[in-house]
Amino acid sequence: MIYFRLQINNPFNKEWARLNDWFFHDYKISQNKNLEIQFGNTTKLTDIADIEFDTKWTGHDHAGASFSLTILWLYLIVKLYDRRHWDKINDGWEEKL
């Protein structure tokens, strides 16, 4: 697993921001993998800049790689994830019944 995040917060904001998607699509690329792309703006200036990269391929529900970038009010999120849930008891992907 690789995880990296660099965030510069707006120190004057005290409220949560809502995301307004301009574009959102979830592409099925294989039986268990999806590619999700999301782009839009936030309602409040919570972060001046935020970049995040994550590669959790196993060990939790919907594992996969993700990248997000926020600059002022604009954001871009890209995820390549597994549609299955993780079975913590058997330490593997849940099988469909």
Set out the fold topology:
Elements: E1 3-9, E2 19-28, E3 33-42, E4 47-56, E5 64-71, E6 74-82, E7 86-87, E8 92-93
Antiparallel strand pairs: 1-4, 2-3, 3-6, 4-5, 5-6, 7-8
Q: Could you provide a short overview of the structure?
A:
The protein is an all-beta fold and 97 residues long. Helices cover 0% and strands 60% of the residues.
Can you give a write-up of this model?
- The chain is mainly beta.
- It has one domain (3-11, 18-86).
- The chain is built from no helices and eight strands.
- It has strands spanning 3-9, 19-28, 33-42, 47-56, 64-71, 74-82, 86-87, 92-93.
- It has a six-stranded antiparallel β-sheet, with no helix packed on it. Strands 7-8 form a two-stranded antiparallel ribbon.
Largest sheet report? 6 strands, antiparallel
Task: Give the helix level as a range of percent.
Answer: under 10%
Work out the number of β strands. Answer: 8
Low-confidence stretches: none
Mean pLDDT comes to 88
The structural domain count equals 1
> How big a fraction of the residues is strand?
over 45%
Structural class: mainly beta
**Helix and strand sequence:** EEEEEEEE
Shape: elongated
Structural Rg: 16 Å
